[in-house]
Amino acid sequence: MRVAVVGTGYVGLVVGACLAETGNDVICADVAQEKIDALRSGRIPIFEPGLEPLVQSNQDAGRLSFTTDVGAAVEASEVVFIAVGTPPGEDGSADLQHVLDVARTIGRHMNAPKVVITKSTVPVGTALMVRETIARETSETFYVCSNPEFLKEGAAVDDFMKPDRVVIGVDAPEAQRILAELYAPFVRTGNPILFMDIPSAELTKYAANAMLATRISFMNQIAELCEEVGADVTLVRQGVGRDERIGPAFLFPGPGYGGSCFPKDVKALIRTAREREVDLDILEAVEAANARQKRKLAQKLLALFDGSLAGRTIAVWGLAFKARTDDMRESPAIDLIETLHAEGAAVRAHDPEALDSARRIFGERIAYAERMYDALEGADALAIVTEWLEYRNPDFARMKSLMASPVVVDGRNLYSPERMRALGFTYHSIGRGAV
Ligand SMILES: NC(=O)c1ccc[n+]([C@@H]2O[C@H](COP(=O)([O-])OP(=O)(O)OC[C@H]3O[C@@H](n4cnc5c(N)ncnc54)[C@H](O)[C@@H]3O)[C@@H](O)[C@H]2O)c1
After folding, report:
1. Which end of the chain is more exposed for a tag (fewer CB within 10 A), N or C?
2. What secondary structure does DSSP assign to 351-406, as a single string?
3. Beta bridge mates, 6
4. CB of 102 shorter than 6 A to ligand 1
5. Ligand 1 proximity of 151 Cβ (cutoff 6 Å)
6. Cβ of 120 below 6 Å from ligand 1
């Protein structure tokens, strides 16, 4: 099939590369000239495991190309995915200006019948708006479907290639047939394509993210209670997660959820509910709990240094909002570092992939360490924000010898408190006794 993917970010690039991998002819279009230039010259503008070889091989095979000419990409294709960003607007609702811009462009370049698919995460009613926007520009036949994306950054290629399920909101059999064909290679092991009405598909994406965010905030609050009553959240998590009705995933407490999706999608869903005068107060609590959780690591550090961090040097391991990505959007590391900075501490940060993202946020305000141990030299404490594998089994003796004082505040519970005590560290983690 001839496919255009408009918006070549974390989602669009993965979708484009994976659809090319299954034999489609894919044009990825984006307005960001530098992104397209990079991709054309074989450079991937983001870190996403497994993506680079996929892009390279499909480009070499002539099935994947890149352009800034969105209109030309639309004209060349039977199927057009809209995968542009939907950032939060001032009132928390999803800002649809990029989606509707693309819809207008699609309408103006509708040279033959096409299926248009909203892949971006968009509130209920957006597919309808896309349809109306396109219809204002053309009398050509076209179909609009909603196909929200559930991939996880850090495992995006695998998730797209082997989805738990594919959700498609559709109201025309012609469009359903084309999408069934497009997705058939990805569901050969039997995981379902769930065809449904368009509003249900649009809402499914928000409900899924809101549920995941709720689990995280719930466990963060249980962790807080664990600290107060002398329980260990790791044991509680295991005990809870073995219940088949609950399951073990997404029960890890941490420094607060971040990323480009949970924070904005929770906000947008709250907004949708308010507009319809539906009480989604559970999500308002989830959001408030997360905002508090993002302050946790800084609070623990302040408590350890008698309320003042002025003149201290704090090492930070991990800047990305989670491991295996360079994405720092809404990362708890941002809140932590801003607070440390405001409290007069010097920050020396390490991340295996996100240093460039961090430089764009903090500039010269903090120091960057290319290697994890470099961040520790003379540090009064280490704060761990991201659960990168390389932080899991470090050389503790080396850490101790480099640091001015052996203090570790661990937002990811990477180490055993007993072991840290035996090694002579002061060690505070989330929902477990401090040593
Ligand atoms: N990142 C994720 O893990 C993830 C997962 C599922 C769904 N989503 C959703 O997918 C959408 C895209 O997310 P992302 O993380 O890929 O965003 P992103 O910011 O990485 O990429 C968006 C791209 O769209 C481009 N763009 C903006 N306006 C454009 C226009 N008018 N024409 C062409 N290109 C344009 C931008 O230049 C950018 O490259 C969002 O709605 C997001 O909520 C994201």
Report:
1. N
2. -SS-HHHHHHHHGGGSEEESSGGGGGTT-SEEEE-S--GGGTS--HHHHHHHSSS-
3. 29, 82
4. yes
5. yes
6. yes
Pairing of strands 193-196, 166-169: parallel
Q: What is the pTM of this model?
A: 0.96
Q: Residue holding tokens 């295991």?
A: 238
The C-alpha atoms of residue 73 and residue 76 are separated, in whole angstroms, by: 5
263 lines ligand 1 (CB under 6 A): no
The predicted-structure confidence for 352-387, as pLDDT tens digits, reads as follows: 999 999 999 999 999 999 999 999 999 999 999 999
Each residue's pLDDT tens digit, 294-351: 999 999 999 999 999 999 999 999 999 999 999 999 999 999 999 999 999 999 999 9
Q: Quick: pLDDT tens for 338-347.
A: 999 999 999 9
**Tokens at 97, concatenated:** 């200006």
Catalytic positions: 261
Written as one string, the DSSP assignment of 227-294 is: HHHT--HHHHHHHHHTSTTT-STT----S---SSSHHHHHHHHHHHHHHTT---HHHHHHHHHHHHHT
Atom of ligand 1 nearest to the CA of 265: 43
The one-character DSSP state at 93 is S
Residue 290 and residue 220 in contact, taking contact as beta carbons nearer than 8 Å: yes
Name residues whose C-beta falls within 8 Å of residue 293's C-beta, 6 or more positions apart in sequence: 217, 220, 254, 255, 256, 332
Which sign does the torsion angle of CA 254, 256, 259, 261 carry?
positive
102 Cα nearest atom in ligand 1: 31
